[in-house]
Amino acid sequence: MITYEEALKIIKQNIIELETEEIELTNSLNRVLREDIFSDMNMPPFNKSAMDGFACRREDIGNELEIIESIQAGYKPQKIVGKNQCSKIMTGAEIPQGANCVIIFEDVEYISENKIKYLKDKTSNNICYTGEDVKKDEILLTPGTRITEKEISSLAMSGKWNLLVSKKPKVGIISTGDEIVEPFIKPNSSQIRNTNAYQLIFQVEKFGCIPNYYGIVKDKEEEILPIISKAKEENDLLILTGGVSMGEFDLIPNSLKKIGFKLLFEKVQQQPGKPTVFGRDENKFVFGMPGNPVSSFFVFEFFAKELLAGMLSLKKYYNELNLELAEDYKRKRSERLGRIPIKINEDGMIVPIEYHGSAHINSLLNADGIISIPIGVIELKKGTKVNVRSIW
Q1: Which residues belong to the signal peptide in this entry (predicted)?
Q2: Is the separation of the CB atoms in 28 and 152 below 8 Å?
């Protein structure tokens, strides 16, 4: 059995980056950039008004000002502002030559149809200057960035319509176990509904990959082998849940070996998720995960995401906060790295959620994150600072 850190190191050492493809900006949400994005112009591209008002010379604001033109956003100023002159200007419009500030409408009194008087002694410039936000040829985004709604406007501003991104990894998902039935079936007294597959499908999809679900396979090698072989052929990564422990019907590790996978680890010193299998056959990978839903959720979060992020060349794929415990936490055993779901309270402190073990799937419903308790640590005292892995 190896530690979590050793397992993570093995995963990192075996990562293969996927190839790239070109897509249009409109299809780029949740994709991972594989090129630098430069601005092809200054932003703003000209000195522009930050307010609706009158563009004038600062040295004239105490005098009566003659309005010489009205400048709408999107139109070029036609006149130069001279002494005791101003141009009526709208937000976003180009500042006319000669003007060096904008006085706002609310602080102006009309003396006549084309003359105004500023009612205050001072004014801010109220001008957004050329290149103030972004300089021409400045790098806006770098390879390894996931494109979210925050990045879209910068991409649009750059004028980059066709983007080079990582291809999406294809992830085959297989549930195993004679006791598993699909959610639309009413289980009998010895059956349980298949929660792992649908949880994983959405975890995979949310992470920007393509899930392919192959259904439930019974605990029979003659059924397991052809399905795994097919999924291996059609995907970059296989995820199987169940059948990875030491029981008589836990056939997954040997089945994976029979179809060519070399298993790089089979047990990890963690709870939940001890019987976690990771294997590789050339450019194909597999995770065998425990059948309990919290275990499979955590194994995907801490292991599968690491591999998929590497395939995607994704630089950052999770958020971590360092927060204080709101109360004492104690566990019964400490020989494995422990992980539990937590809630962050109104004071920004960690509150452990009621958690009965790896089958307690509803413990994740209101969880904000996961904390890890190191090997050898039985108790964490109130006020202890702990890293929280955000899961939403």
Answers
A1: none
A2: yes
CA terminus-to-terminus distance, the chain? 30
Residues 188 and 256 in one domain: yes
Q: How confident is the model at residue 31 (pLDDT cuts 50, 70, 90)?
A: very high
Cβ atoms 236, 228 nearer than 8 A: no
Q: Are 286 and 355 in contact (CB under 8 A)?
A: no
Instruction: Give yes or no: residues 173 and 307 share one domain.
Output: yes
Confidence of residue 248 (pLDDT cuts 50, 70, 90): low
Residue 380 β-bridge partners: 329
Q: Do 141 and 180 share a domain, yes or no?
A: no
* Token pair for 64: 């009566």
Q: In 3D, which of 167, 164, 187 has the Cα closest to residue 177? A: 187
Report pTM. Answer: 0.90
Q: 234 in helix, strand or coil?
A: helix
The total domain count for the chain is: 4
- CA-only gyration radius of the chain, Å: 30
